[in-house]
Amino acid sequence: MDKQVSSRGTKEKALRLNLDEKKYGTIVEIGAGQEVARNFFVAGAAAGTIAKTMSAYDMKFSDAIYGVQEDGRYVSKARVLAMMEQEFDLVVDRVGAIRSKSSRYFSYATTVSAKSFNRKNECHAWCGVRIQMYPGAEPSNIIVHVRMFDDTAEAQQQALGILGVNLIYASYYYFEDPKMIIDSLTDNMKANRIEIDCIDFQGPYFEDVDNQAKNIHLIRSWKTRAIMFKADGSVAVPADMLYKKNVLTIRGSFKPITKLNVDMIEQGFKAFSTQEGVTDKNTVLIAEISLNDLHGKDANMTEKDIMERVKLLNLLGYNVMISDYTRYFSLRAYFRQYTQLQIGIVVGMVNIKQIFDEEYYRGMEGGILEAFGKLFPDNTRLFVYPERDEKGELTDLTTISVPHNLRYLFRHVLDNGFITSIESSDPDLFNIFSREILQQICRGQGDWIDAVPETVSQAIMEQKLFGYRG
């Protein structure tokens, strides 16, 4: 759960900043009051830190000040970046020549879509700070995307006010430790009020910061349950990637991704494409890696290990999701937050056996029935890839053995199309086992090169991934 980094409350953090005459800047907030600025004024001595506060609610006013971004949106990363850059330049231009040479300037900006009284809307915000880490330095940025879960606009404003103070405070006092910056963002805030699902460190001071790794820390710092990477490796906001999209996902260790994994994805998509409304253009493919093991415990993967897997998946053009979800119905519920279209999950026979294991649902009041009700409520299907058993016999949904007391439940989901068999394109792929491939890579021996796509084998050898010895 969230941990408190600083013993200071929000007011004490704001006061410490206010009393430091070397720190000086502006705060602009659009869409949810002026709670960040208010916290500095309530703390006292704000004149020592705040040059200007502003809100520009009217779109024409906002456009006249900050211009119109290419995406045309007002609650966007592009808009908050434009706000930060313009306000930072203004404060330096206007007071840089008359203030102490030891001054370190900043601009804080946020653009928000808060809870509305007359419509249902996604409650989210982009918040960022542009800051000099030392006097005269080129500025660096920290930008976060936030989802708000409070029931009222007033409570959401209050949460964003706390977050804003935390972000400004952390950028000055924890700038040498990006993980501590992340940990501190929910100081003085109760759990489950906000979710931070994307963070971006930019600029000369953070040029050595691995943004992929730091976004993974969002999960381990309990700021979010999942993060997304686009196929080009850049960090994505889940809502932007999933909104009004059909989603096909496959869970795996992908250490490394093999030709078997690729065939599962391709055959799964072929079957998924037969569903109503599914096309290449409106469907997103996602390879998902869970940080938890089968029992819901931390699998203790290192960031380096995770990033090596992500890198290889990106090489093959796949979007990647890192999550801490254990059960498949939780994964489905996550996707359903963002899209009402089709959801497909590609699984192997071992996963189906797990799904029909009642021990898998220990701790759930409704047991396996509750779990299935959450997994298959609407437009959700599992596509099941076959395997060879220990005797070399092909095993699929026609030959699987489920517990006797669950045979009618199995029949129900099968007959209603909630689970569907898919075929392998090459029987030889059944001889590929990721654990064996990984052992061969580490030893620098074996036929592992033939078991993975060519671009993957080249990257492993050239970059010495997964402990490769060549």
From TrEMBL:
Alphabetic keyword roster: Receptor
Q: What is this protein called?
A: TonB-dependent receptor
